[in-house]
Amino acid sequence: MTNIIHPFSLADEQDYSRPKIGQQVELNQSTLGQYVHIADNAIIEESQIGDYSYTAGNNQIFYATIGKFVSIATYVRINPGNHPTYQRVAQHHFTYRSSVYGLGEDDQVFFDWRREHHVTVGNGAVIGTSAVVTKDVEPYSIVAGVAAKKIGMRFDDTMIGRIEASRWWDWDHETLKKRMPDFRDLRVFAEKYL
Fold first, then answer.
1. Contact at 8 Å (CB) between 145 and 126?
2. Which among 22, 100, 102, 182 could disulfide-bond with 40, CB atoms 3.0 to 4.6 Å apart, if both were Cys?
3. Are strands 149-153 and 141-144 parallel, antiparallel or unpaired?
């Protein structure tokens, strides 16, 4: 687990397997897989992000598990806070982030509720720009909107079943490198590996 606020540049480090972390990124009690890229201006809290997944910037991810090879566009929020709109006379942050306003301790029950409503994003999913993800995202789906809804699937059910059975995302880096040309043509890839 890491608790990091720092810039990281690929130019500073030639170990490409290490996560690439942009400017103004907060990682709190989170783990990042290999070859992950977290672009600038992100907050990631109590989350796990799988190998090769990336964010495009200005993202907030709380209490989530992100699969491998997931594409997360700019301004995406995953598992954001759920304002206590009907439970309190004021739904404002000061009622649960009280310490920020000098009003006492934070409301841990509020944050525990968010932890209990963990969000999982499946392998190979695509999350469109400015989406607010409040529920699990199935593998290979494309979601967008506020709140995010499935707008499509990358493949049909038969192809997804074949892809899932191949478990190609668990191939080591050298195998991926050797087979890279096959990844650029779905038909060729399917004939060889599915």
1. no
2. 22
3. antiparallel
Q: Mean pLDDT, to the nearest integer, of 63-72?
A: 97
Q: Are 29 and 44 in contact (CB under 8 A)?
A: no
SS3 45: strand
Neighbours of 185 (CB within 10 A): 11
Q: Is the pLDDT of residue 134 over 90?
A: yes
Locate 167 and state its tokens: 């478990």
* DSSP structural state of residue 19: P
What is the tens place of the pLDDT at every residue in 106-128?
988 888 888 899 999 999 999 99
In the block, which residue shows the tokens 């783990």?
Answer: 31
Between the CA of residue 146 and those of 47, 76, 116, 130, 194, what are the distances in Å? 21, 10, 21, 8, 35
The CA–CA distances, whole Å, from 75 to 130, 133, 146 equal: 4, 11, 11
101 in helix, strand or coil?
Answer: helix
Count CA within 13 A, CB hemisphere, residue 106. Answer: 9
In which residue are the tokens 């070859």 written?
35
Instruction: Write the single-letter amino acid at 181.
Output: P
Tokens 């309190």, residue located: 88
Angle at 169 between CA 61 and CA 63, to 5 degrees: 20
Reduce the DSSP state of residue 30 to 3 states and report it: strand
Q: How far, CA to CA in Å, does 33 sit from each of 93, 103, 113, 123?
A: 32, 38, 26, 13
